[in-house]
């Protein structure tokens, strides 16, 4: 299986690609895609890294698993393809953006527009079997994405990390908060959001206020 990834990431992650666990992971993923229906499509597995180069990373959003429903997952966390019904978590993300930065609710749930502005939309696990949430967990993806977060934390500065929910907070526990801006809140899923742990976190305006303070171009959410 070919790793389609921006050249800047190849340089940063070349040692990771040589590790035994990563080679075994790719074999596992190839076999899964040959045997079952899996998401996202194989050409989009590394879309987060194709769309947002290492140099361009300003913001990192950490998700858990790709969507496991038909035609939803497009390789970016929380994102779906054009004209696909918005899943509940994405609806709540857009509602918070509406009230936080006073924009209209977007028609498209495809977050490629964010990725092109420097938002790394990183799922902890990059693949999943159709209809089986978590089916590709603990096969090596988490080791790989931990390494990605570590490289960003170590080699960049003034990156905004948005950690939503307990899983993302744990995943981002080793981020160097003395060099970066780390924002945490509940998860945008209805279970968390309806209990008051998501709405009103103002992460989108806070992100832009921070970027502006560092003379970094802000994100058009």
Brief sketch in words of this structure:
The protein has 221 residues and is α/β, with parallel strands linked by helices. The chain contains nine helices and six strands.
How would you describe the overall organization of this protein?
This protein has 221 residues and is of the alpha/beta class. It is built from nine helices and six strands; from the N terminus they run H-H-E-H-E-H-H-E-E-H-E-H-E-H-H. The strands form two sheets. A four-stranded parallel sheet has the order 3-2-5-6. A two-stranded antiparallel ribbon has the order 1-4. Strand 5, helix 7 and strand 6 form a beta-alpha-beta unit. The N and C termini lie far apart (33 Å). The relative contact order is 0.16. The mean pLDDT is 96.
Distance between the termini: 33 Å
Number of strands: 6
Please work out how many helical segments DSSP would assign: 9
Strand content: 5-15%
Would you list the SSEs in sequence order as H and E? Answer: HHEHEHHEEHEHEHH
- Main sheet makeup: 4 strands, parallel
Helical/strand content category: alpha/beta
Unreliable stretches, pLDDT < 50, 5 or more residues? none
Structural Rg: 17 Å
What helical percentage do the residues reach?
A: 25-40%
Strand order of the largest sheet: 3-2-5-6
General shape: globular
Mean pLDDT: 96
């Amino acid at each position: 299986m070919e790793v389609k990834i921006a050249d800047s990431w190849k340089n940063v992650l070349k040692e990771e690609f040589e590790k035994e666990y990563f080679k075994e992971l790719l074999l596992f993923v190839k076999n899964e895609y040959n045997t079952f229906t899996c998401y996202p499509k194989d050409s989009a597995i590394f879309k987060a890294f194709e769309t947002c180069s290492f140099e361009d990373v300003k913001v990192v959003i950490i998700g858990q698993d790709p969507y496991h429903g038909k035609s939803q997952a497009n390789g970016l966390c929380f994102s779906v393809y054009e004209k696909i019904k918005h899943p509940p978590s994405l609806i709540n993300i857009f509602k918070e953006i509406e009230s936080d930065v006073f924009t209209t609710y977007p028609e498209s749930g495809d977050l490629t527009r964010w990725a092109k502005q420097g938002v790394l939309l990183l799922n902890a696990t990059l693949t999943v079997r159709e209809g089986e949430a978590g089916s590709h967990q603990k096969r090596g993806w988490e080791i790989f994405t931990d390494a990605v977060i570590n490289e960003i934390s170590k080699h960049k500065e003034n990156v905004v990390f948005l950690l939503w929910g307990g899983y993302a907070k744990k995943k981002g526990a080793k981020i160097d908060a003395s060099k970066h801006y780390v924002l945490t809140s509940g998860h945008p899923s209805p279970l968390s959001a309806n209990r008051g742990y998501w709405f009103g976190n103002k992460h989108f305006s806070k992100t832009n206020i921070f970027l502006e303070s560092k003379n970094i171009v802000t994100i058009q959410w």
